[in-house]
Write a structure and sequence with these properties.
The complex is a heterodimer of chains A (about 300) and B (about 100). Chain A is built from 3 helices and 20 strands. Chain A has about 300 residues and is mainly β. Chain A has 2 domains: about 120 residues, Jelly Rolls (Sandwich), CATH 2.60.120; about 120 residues, Hypothetical Protein Tm1070, Chain: A (Sandwich), CATH 2.60.290. Chain B is mainly β and about 100 residues long. Chain B has one domain. In chain B, about 5% of the residues lie in helices and about 40% in strands. Chain B has 1 helix and 5 strands. In chain B, a hairpin with a 6-residue loop joins strand 4 and strand 5. Classes of the chains: A mainly beta (about 300), B mainly beta (about 100). Strand 20 of chain A pairs antiparallel with strand 3 of chain B.
């Protein structure tokens, strides 16, 4: 099976943060069905319903190896100084010829890597990009529950310790999304509206009562349509001071127990997939992508 | 983190060259640092690239490879922090 497209990648653009997007071009080359081709790499930046920037570059592959691949994509804080709401980026690859629908890719989910956000005066934040569509657990979830449902298990708010937390919501689709957040202790943030092609922060301190100093618990987010979500830990006093970003997890509808013979079939399928997949893994160690800053 | 009953070495190498599926291949004259971790112990090692490495990556991303050839229980984490550790977060390397 081969595909004429790869699913676009989505990620947040936080205000006041430099953003470095590391695109694994060499691993894109491993997905190709043809050795020599020129692909169009398209990056779009959105904010509050508007396409703010479009960058296109041709990446030439010879024998599936990119020739002089572009550098890490740098989007400076000054380029995304659009206001209080975050923006988002979206990138994909396609044939240079728009009418070419030949099967170029061995799989439609392209390899991703962390995006690194660098807030002024703070530490770096690793951000996990998301696929725009075609994620099997999300498809199963919406089929089973009729809504988009995600959870985050470790929310901690504390006025005294200055622990704040927000849910970042990116709506990369052409339809507004309505959402709701429920807490494990009965708190509710509703209604939440994220306009099309926009991103929003939902401040979780709304779950704190006026006399409450702190709250720890779990949250569940439901939405009328799929949406890309992030949990962001930050200063409660100054929410622009970001400390960490994580992804929420889908409330999965796939069965946790399956018949033994079906499990065996899956294991055989996984083993066969690993033999042919370009994304083989090592059991010995791991790779980290970091960004260092020069002292001073 | 070394969960085994004997000391072990972890090697951290950088900067990596592409392609990453040959991840132990260093870019030019790369650096490898060995961190010894006692049995049942843990160590925090600060990545301090040399000036030559910093010039090589030219303000871009530094790709690291961490490995141990010794089988047995172990775990590696990546701590992203300010220099004075007043802000930090923990993440995992990719396999």
């Amino acid at each position: 099976m081969a595909y004429s497209f790869v699913v676009p990648i989505i990620g947040a653009l936080h205000p006041n943060c430099d953003c470095r997007i590391n695109v694994p071009f060499y691993r894109i080359g491993e997905l190709l069905t043809v050795p020599d081709i020129a692909l169009k790499w398209r990056v779009r930046l959105f904010h509050d319903g508007e396409l703010k920037d479009l960058r296109e570059e041709t990446v030439v592959f010879k024998n599936k190896v990119p020739q002089s691949p572009p550098d890490t994509l740098f989007i400076g804080a000054s380029e995304t100084n659009w206001g209080e709401n975050p923006g988002f980026y979206e990138y994909d690859f396609s044939s240079e010829n728009p009418s070419d629908d030949s099967p170029l890719f061995k799989q439609f989910l392209q390899p991703t890597s962390y995006t690194i956000c660098s807030p002024a005066g703070g530490k770096n934040i690793f951000s996990t990009p998301a696929f725009k569509f075609a994620v099997p657990p999300v498809i199963d979830m919406v089929a089973a529950y009729g809504r988009y449902v995600e959870c985050y298990p470790v929310v901690e708010l504390d006025r005294q310790k200055d622990y704040g937390e927000s849910i970042g919501m990116i709506n990369p689709y052409n339809k507004n999304v309505r959402a709701e957040i429920l807490s494990s202790t009965g708190g509710r943030i509703f209604p939440i509206r994220v306009p099309k092609l926009s991103a929003r922060y939902v401040r979780l301190e709304q779950l704190l009562g006026p006399d409450e100093n702190d709250w720890r618990g779990q949250i569940q987010l439901t939405a009328s349509n799929r949406i890309v979500t992030l949990d962001i830990k930050h200063s409660l006093v100054d929410p622009k001071r970001l400390y960490n970003e994580e992804h929420l997890d889908p409330f999965r509808a796939d069965p946790t127990h399956v018949p033994a013979f079906q499990m065996l079939r899956r294991k055989i399928g996984d083993a066969l997939f690993k033999r042919i997949s370009p994304q083989r893994t090592s059991r010995r160690g791991g790779e980290v992508i970091s960004q260092t800053r020069r002292a001073g | 983190m070394n969960g085994s009953s004997h000391p072990r070495s972890f090697n951290i190498s950088y900067p990596l060259s592409y392609p990453l599926n040959n991840a132990t291949e260093l870019m030019g004259k790369g650096e490898t640092v060995t961190v010894e971790v006692p049995a049942g112990g843990a160590r925090l090692h600060e990545i301090e690239p040399s000036d030559a490495t910093l010039r090589q990556i030219d303000g871009g991303l530094l790709r690291l490879f961490c490995e141990t050839d010794d089988p047995g229980p172990q775990k590696m984490f990546f701590v992203s922090a300010t220099k004075n550790l007043d802000q930090l977060s923990i993440d995992h390397p990719g396999g």
